[in-house]
Amino acid sequence: MCSPLIGSVPARVDLPDEVPFGIGKELVVDVPVNSRGTSDIFVDDILAKTVDLPGSDNVERCAGATLLSIHKLLAEAGPEERKIMLGWVLNFRSLIISLPENKATAWSNEISEMLKEGKTQSKRLERIIGRFVNIGMILPYVHHFLARL
User: Fold this and answer.
1) Where are the beta strands (DSSP E) in the chain?
2) pTM metric for this prediction
3) How far is CA 146 from the centre of its chain?
4) CA-CA distance, 22 to 56, in Å (whole number)?
5) What confidence tens digit (pLDDT) does each residue in 29-82 have?
6) H-helix or E-strand spanning residue 107
7) Residues 6+ apart with CB under 8 A from 74
8) How many other CB atoms sit within 10 Å of the CB of residue 64?
9) For residue 16, what is the DSSP state?
10) DSSP class of residue 7?
11) Which of 18, 48, 71, 104 is most buried by a 10 A CB count?
């Protein structure tokens, strides 16, 4: 069942044809596959995933299934190959996860300043550790290096 707002879903945004497709690696866990697509909810962000099968309405169905409000719809509901989710840029074509450039620059600058000063306040250190934990949500192996912070 689709939302009555389905007609308001922003148009699909594909990356240029010159952008290569990433090569996936074998998974270490079983991920159930649904040929009609699924959605995951993260706080107030919904990420719908589907296979764009020829002759199917999978993309439209997933876009329509994610509508919570008109504001979220206009800002985020359109099907895209590149989407910002929880502050990360997810590139589904290239299979690359990255920080937006402005965030990466700000994080890097703050760490550099703190190291240059040789000391910091506890609130600033907690904020930086929080950012490392955020990285650990995307790259779980980072938690090993955070254990002593």
Assistant:
1) 38-42, 45-49, 82-85, 88-91, 96-98
2) 0.62
3) 22
4) 23
5) 776 766 666 666 666 666 666 666 677 776 776 666 555 556 665 666 667 788
6) helix 101-117
7) 8, 10
8) 21
9) P
10) G
11) 48
